[in-house]
Amino acid sequence: MAEPKFEEVLKKLEKIVADLENGDLSLDEALKKYQEGIELARACNQRLDSAKKKIEVLLKNKKGDFELKSFTEGNVE
Amino acid sequence: MQSYKSKEKPQDSADLFSQRRVYTVSEITQEIKSILEGSFGTVWVEGEVSNVNLHLSGHCYFSLKDKGAVLPAAVFNYRNRDIKFKLENGLKVICFGKLDVYLPHGSYKLLVEKIEPKGIGSLQLALEQLKEKLGREGLFAPGHKRPLPYLPARIGIVTSMSGAAIKDILKVLERRFHDVELVISPAQVQGEVAKEDIVRAIQDLNDFNDRLPQAAKIEVMIVGRGGGSIEDLWAFNEEIVARAIYDSAIPVISAVGHERDWTIADLVSDVRAATPSQAAELAVPEKEELSRKIAGLLDDLDAGIGYALAGKEEVLCASMDKLRLLNPLARLDNYREKITGFASQVVVRMQHFLKLKQAALQEAASRLGALSPLNILGRGYSITFGLTDGKIIKDAAWVRIGDPIKTRLHKGEVVSYVKEANKNGGTKI
Question: Which of B161, B294, B308 sits opposite A44 (nearest CB)?
Answer without folding.
Answer: B294
